[in-house]
Amino acid sequence: MIANIQFEVAKLSDIDGVLALQELYLVSNLSEEEKEFGFVTTPFTIPQLTEVIEQQGLFLAKDNNKTIAYIFSGSWDFFNQWPIFNYMITLLPDLKFLDFDITTTNSFQYGPICIDKKYRGKGLITPLFEFMRKHVVKKHPLALTFINKTNIPSTKAHTEKLNWSIIGDFQFNNNNYFILAYDMNQPVSIR
């Protein structure tokens, strides 16, 4: 099923497709039952998408030119417009991962990632992540993200399929999150 998938760095003309996919899986649009299969928590606006696309920080998987998955990668400067990311920045000096001194200059905020449910569990996450990794490693050797502890599918996908490490946790706005890290110099093995 993923043999004919194309991977691309997003262009401004991709905004409508990204917004359509976001709308399907945004946590505020899902029932409790639907949330069990994974969700995204950060809604992006057209100006925010424009900014991240201009920074070449949005990566897509397409099937017949339809956006079926995306991964965001952004600087802390981009993501600091949301309070949760500002809070995460305050945690960086106390985090430990390999030999990294974790800073806002050697790391970036990875995510959200969203995959259309028809394509989940088919191995798409690995080549999409690897496509993003090859582009971003030139700028940042370290990726950080957080995942809501109730989003078990996302935690499993990142720790089991992509080999991310859980390096901490925190509470924000009555939600509990894992903090994960990835050494961007390490390719993901594509099975």
Radius of gyration: 15 Å
Output the strand order for the largest sheet: 1-2-3-4-5-7-6
Tell me the distance between the termini: 14 Å
Give the structural class: alpha+beta
Helix content: 25-40%
Share of β-strand residues? 25-35%
Kindly state the number of beta strands.
7
**What does the average pLDDT come to?**
89
Helix count? 7
The largest pleated sheet is described as: 7 strands, mixed
Q: What is the 3D shape?
A: globular
Care to describe what's here?
The protein is an alpha+beta fold and 191 residues long. Helices cover 31% and strands 27% of the residues. It has helices at 15-25, 32-35, 46-54, 76-79, 83-91, 125-136, 152-161; strands spanning 6-9, 58-63, 66-74, 107-115, 142-148, 165-172, 175-183. A seven-stranded mixed beta sheet has the order 1-2-3-4-5-7-6, sandwiched between helices. β4, α6 (125-136) and β5 form a beta-alpha-beta unit. The longest helix is centred in the C-terminal third of the chain and has 12 residues, at 125-136.
Give me some keywords for this one:
single chain; alpha+beta; 7-stranded mixed beta sheet; 7 helices; 7 strands; globular
